[in-house]
Amino acid sequence: MLSERRLEVLRAIVQDYVGTEEPVGSKALTERHRLGVSPATVRNDMAALEEEGFIAQPHTSAGRIPTDKGYRLFVDRLAGVKPLSTPERRAIQNFLDGAVDLDDVVGRTVRLLAQLTRQVAVVQYPSLTRSTVRHVELLSLAPARVMLVLITDTGRVEQRMIDCPAPIGETSLADLRARLNSRVVGRRFTDVPQLVSDLADSFEQEDRGTVSTVLATLLETLVEETEERLMIGGTANLTRFGHDFPLTIRPVLEALEEQVVLLKLLGEAKDSGMTVRIGHENAHEGLNSTSVVAVGYGSGDEAVAKLGVVGPTRMDYPGTMGAVRAVARYVGQILAES
Amino acid sequence: MLSERRLEVLRAIVQDYVGTEEPVGSKALTERHRLGVSPATVRNDMAALEEEGFIAQPHTSAGRIPTDKGYRLFVDRLAGVKPLSTPERRAIQNFLDGAVDLDDVVGRTVRLLAQLTRQVAVVQYPSLTRSTVRHVELLSLAPARVMLVLITDTGRVEQRMIDCPAPIGETSLADLRARLNSRVVGRRFTDVPQLVSDLADSFEQEDRGTVSTVLATLLETLVEETEERLMIGGTANLTRFGHDFPLTIRPVLEALEEQVVLLKLLGEAKDSGMTVRIGHENAHEGLNSTSVVAVGYGSGDEAVAKLGVVGPTRMDYPGTMGAVRAVARYVGQILAES
DNA sequence: CCTGGCACTCAGTGGTGGCGAGTGCCAAAG
DNA sequence: CTTTGGCACTCGCCACCACTGAGTGCCAGG
């Protein structure tokens, strides 16, 4: 087990390195932090920390930098979550208020998060599977052509065009609309399938085909559109990465363009509480030198989607975590109000 | 006026520089292109071209590179639009077919364009102002709360929540819905204001307030949502820029994140025909070392939106223009079919 | 007007040496 | 057993320098 002071040394190394972006040596450490011991002692501690794999030297005769394992320990045991300052909180509120629709909320959130953390922000749209139905609308566009519009409690709207096997009258359609809504409004998407399974039976023979088609499309929409959407922003912050960077930045940009990768990334995050994935803990290769801080957010007590930031492993974890958490809370609040 | 041969020399310089990314010298030129003259002659021509500002030397004793003005001349007079190969055309078709909705079409287009040109692709969503109304739907969510859903011929859906001054009955709402649709379906958005201006008059006194509110919101949606959306992709291609690049790439990424900038960029493009803006011709400072190739696309003969690519001024103009034009045509076709 | 020749310029390359931050080890002190 | 000062050593970084070669401008002759 590592002594208290060695942990303190590790913390100091992480803090310094995050600040300066340069390998930190024993002398500099004792100067900047009141460790109360001499450089030589620190050197011994460093040797021990290196032995355990928490820090490493880029090359002999250079200072030490934290390894992924070092950051992990730092995040788990040495760092808290830094709460935002009051002006920062106020800024968040001002920035998010005045959003007019869901797109706007997500867009503002992404910009806010990117600005606050000076990193790349990723915000997932509220997931269909976990939200509830606000309304289902059926529009007859042509005798045998119906448009299905699905509205969620988070303000998301999905529409599908349906070619019906047979024409359906306005009355039947209105009937179907009414029954459908009375059954599913306010219910969770996951419950919908059972709720509508027997609905076709109560219709006239001639309409059953169409009703089934409509219901099938509805269910399909629920499944298909579980394919989540998300928005990213702040990619320009990637340029602050390293000075070496074409090599560093390229795979990251590539990874960020693959929605699938990002969705998996957020999906891996715990449903509640904050998740921090550091460097190689990320499955995707392109993100091996980045860390992801993600958290769920929702209109109620339950998470309907996730948001987070992607940045260099060498990031200000307490600050980033604080910002991410704060933003998630406010967004949840906004969603609950609307 | 420049002699024919000098133009030929300029063309050769542009082609070589685009290929090698290195300043091109007189000797190399005569070797790679059958100009039929000696390096010394080419040198004289180069001196003349430099005098006129079409090319420049990064430093004494280096080859020449084209200036923005040089590229301009190249694009205007020396280069055609390179048509795509048959396999490329087929690839486009395969890639775009099978798109399920508007988001999907735009998403696929962006990826396709980025891949084809190996540059950053920008695709604007079909604009509301130039499209026509397919359907207007009114949903009563609560006694004094109505949702307005607007569906365009390009498949775009906009919705707005309306708080009514007074409750409105289902019958009146259905009446309004019917009249509204009979007046505006199939009409262009720009015509809608006149078409509905007197609609409130024909309603009962008690409903007039609500009807006016609904109409006002409808008009507002038309105006507000002229705030266009767009999608970008292929930012990872920016890493192919230069080797110098933190400095180059940063302002570009920043510019690309500002939708406003991009919209202005596309907006500046001519409505019909292809527009190429080279280097400093772009108003935005961050894009001073990039060129933009943009073109309108639409479901009919008229452009409903624009798409294009952003890349280094040193780009393969004929190839890029060919790809952009071809993609725009296919997308227009897809939109017309749906 | 074109061409070959010639002197000149200058970015890039590679080698050299000094500097200094940082290390590991050790022996002595606490 | 831990801490500390001392010391020799390593090695990345930088400044300096000379060399090379691609490319140029100019000029005199075809």
Describe, in plain words, how this protein is organized in 3D.
Two copies of one chain form a homodimer. Chain A has 338 residues and is of the alpha+beta class. Chain A folds into three domains: 4-77, Winged helix-like DNA-binding domain superfamily/Winged helix DNA-binding domain (Arc Repressor Mutant, subunit A); 86-126 and 228-337, GAF domain (Beta-Lactamase, 2-Layer Sandwich), CATH 3.30.450.40; 129-225, Enolase-like, domain 1. Helix content of chain A is 46%, strand content 17%. Chain A has a five-stranded antiparallel sheet with strand order 7-3-10-9-8, sandwiched between helices. In chain A, strands 4-5-6 form a three-stranded antiparallel sheet. In chain A, strand 4 (133-142) and strand 5 form a beta hairpin. In chain A, helix 1 (4-20) packs across helix 3, helix 2 packs across helix 3 and helix 6 (102-117) runs antiparallel to helix 12. The longest helix of chain A is centred in the last third of the chain and has 21 residues, at 317-337. Chain A is elongated, with a radius of gyration of 26 Å. Chain A binds chain B through residues 101, 103, 134-135, 137, 139, 141, 147, 149, 151, 157, 159-160, 229, 233-236, 238-239, 243, 245-246, 249-250, 253-254, 256-257, and chain B through 101, 103, 134-135, 137, 139, 141, 147, 149, 151, 157, 159-160, 229, 233-236, 238-239, 243, 245-246, 249-250, 253-254, 256-257. Chain B binds a DNA duplex (30 and 30 nucleotides) through helix 2 and helix 3. Chains A, B: Pfam families: HrcA, HTH_DeoR.
